[in-house]
Design a protein that fits this description.
about 30% strand, alpha+beta, 5 helices, about 170 residues
Length: about 170
C-alpha cells in the first residue's frame, strides 16, 4: 500500500469510493451513520485537496482508502479534557477516515493509522485527535487498539441535521 497526498485528478475516484462505501453502509450495518449524497461527498474531497490535507491509500494503482488531516477541531472539542493543552497547529485532527468496503479487514485502517502516526512524528506534532460516532464500534476498536485514548463524549451539534448526536473523542499523544 502506498499513501500520498490526494491530487485534483483523484477526485472522481475518491467520490466513487465514498459512494461505494455509502452504498455498502446502506445495505449493511451503518456504524458511522454516513449517507450517500450527504457525507462524505465529492465536495468533501475537493475542499480537502484544495487545502492540501487529504491523503489517499493506493493498492495496485487503485484508491482504497483516504483520510483528512488538518488542524481544525470541532467547536465541541473545547469541552474535552485532553491529555495535553497545546495549540492546534501542533495537533493533527483526523477526519473522514475511509476504507473501501472491498478492503475491509485487510489491515488498511491500521496501515493508514501507522502512516498518520509517522507523519505526526515527522512534522513534530504533539497529538492526534478525532471524533467518532458513538455507535461506530469497528472504528472505536481500531482506534483503541492503535493507542488512542478515550477522553469524553460530546454533542457536535449535527443531531438534527444528520440524526447523529453523541461522538466519542479520542487522542493519541506523540
Amino acid at each position: 500500500m502506498k499513501i500520498e497526498k490526494g491530487r485534483k485528478e483523484d477526485i472522481d475516484e475518491i467520490e466513487k469510493m465514498y459512494d461505494e462505501l455509502n452504498d455498502y453502509l446502506a445495505d449493511n450495518t451503518n456504524y458511522p451513520g454516513w449517507k450517500k449524497g450527504v457525507y462524505p461527498v465529492r465536495q468533501t474531497a475537493v475542499s480537502a485537496i484544495l487545502e492540501e490535507n487529504l491523503y489517499v491509500a493506493r493498492k495496485e494503482g487503485r484508491i482504497v482508502g483516504s483520510v483528512i488531516l488538518n488542524h481544525k477541531p470541532e467547536a465541541a472539542y473545547a469541552e474535552a479534557r485532553w491529555g495535553i493543552e497545546i495549540d492546534y497547529e501542533k495537533v493533527f485532527v483526523l477526519k473522514t477516515f475511509v476504507v473501501h468496503p472491498q478492503y475491509f479487514k485487510q489491515g488498511l485502517g491500521k496501515g493508514l493509522l501507522d502512516y498518520i502516526n509517522n507523519l505526526a512524528i515527522k512534522k513534530n506534532m504533539k497529538a492526534i485527535r478525532l471524533d467518532v460516532y458513538e455507535s461506530n464500534i469497528p472504528a472505536i476498536n481500531l482506534y483503541e487498539k492503535n493507542g488512542f485514548r478515550y477522553v469524553g463524549t460530546v454533542d457536535l451539534g449535527i443531531g438534527e441535521t444528520y440524526n447523529l448526536k453523541w461522538f466519542k473523542l479520542y487522542e493519541k499523544l506523540i
